[in-house]
Design brief:
9 strands, 50% strand, 0% helix, elongated, Immunoglobulin-like, 3-stranded mixed β-sheet, 4-stranded antiparallel β-sheet, mainly beta
Length: 101
């Protein structure tokens, strides 16, 4: 890929875009009840989504690999956000159920 400015051309190297996979799941509290309205983030890629009323979430177009997700916005919780890892394969959906400790 080349980018041209009014004064010179700059090469950005090769750019490969793939459809990736889908990461999805459910976030539960320590009591096993769904956590609605909390944020699940894949902050390395600036991808964020809020859970629905059943604690479910879904992020599409995640590059293949093993990623660390964060859970933010849990009412009454202070300190570092809980984290979990999930392996995503190209063209597939990876699902998890994460219980916040």
């Amino acid at each position: 890929m080349n980018v041209r400015s009014s004064t010179r051309a700059t090469s950005l190297g090769s750019l490969r875009m793939t459809p990736g996979g889908t990461a999805s799941g459910r976030v539960l509290g320590a009591d096993g009840k769904p956590l609605a309205g909390v944020q699940v983030s894949l902050s390395d890629l600036f991808l964020y989504v809020d859970t629905d009323s059943e604690g479910r979430w879904r992020i599409e177009h995640v590059p293949a690999g093993t990623w660390e997700f964060h859970v933010n916005g849990i009412e009454g919780r202070e300190g570092p956000s809980p984290r979990f890892t999930l392996a995503v394969d190209e063209g597939k959906t990876a699902e998890t159920e994460f219980r916040v400790p």
